[in-house]
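Batch manifest, entry 17 of 40.
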Amino acid sequence: MSVAEIIERHRDRFVPMFDPELTAANTIHIDLSTSNREFDGLSKSGWDQAIENKIADAGAIAAVGGYLEKRSVYEDTPNFKDDEDRNVHIGVDVFMPAGTPVHAPLAGEVCCFANRQGEGDYGPVIILRHELDGIAFHSLYGHLTESSLDGLSRGMTVDAGALIASIGDRPRNGDWPPHLHFQLIRDLQGLDDNYPGVAHAADLDFYRVNCPDPGALIVRSGSV
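Output type: structure tokens
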């Protein structure tokens, strides 16, 4: 059974990741793909402000998007300089203010965590392990505050709805605009906290299955 099928079967076990809960009414879609040029040429602060303005102008509290999105932003990011063809985002981004609390959508345990500094990396990242119907899978939370890692240990149990982290800010979040990178992963392939959030287009048949779209766990009422 696939992770997507497991989630659909147990949808009532999952709880909101944010308070207030994100819905189609209070979120907007954000397009960072190569087909959208509105963010081209912006400075880091200009990019941050442009995203904040889009959210505010829409009367929303968050901007959500990114699954299987091909992005040009990685071309000038040091973390990708030796692998420019790795440019398809395989998680979902939730742009909200730095410091926004993030809650576990499902009970599980801490699988691994790290502070992956370097421009374009995850910054502080946490991966939880879950099990449903005897099948294990993982949820990844990237670009967090460094304090999100305080007190963590491998194997620590986490209840559904527990506060597990908060959204980080530049430069310690990997030097990105404040947002959460959220990703589902069936098999970590032995990579643990170094599991990629961006993939090669040639590998997408694998990643569509191993890292299915997690959007329904973020915006739980309607679609963005």
